[in-house]
Sequence to fold (71 residues):
Amino acid sequence: MGNRPLDILNNALNTPVIVRLKGAREFRGNLQGYDVHMNLVLEEAEELREGETRKLGTVIIRGDNVVYVSP
Fold:
């Protein structure tokens, strides 16, 4: 285990995470993959917005929009 951001993402693979994007959008889902640009693949993803949840399935999130990832 390391303290680099990608090591933390690697430890979070196949577990539920919450991803906050620019513009205050949030997604919850199981982290299935990522790359060095912080592009993320979430399965069973849901968008969390104003107390409502919208199921989306599998989504790809561009890393330049990511504010944080919380395992």
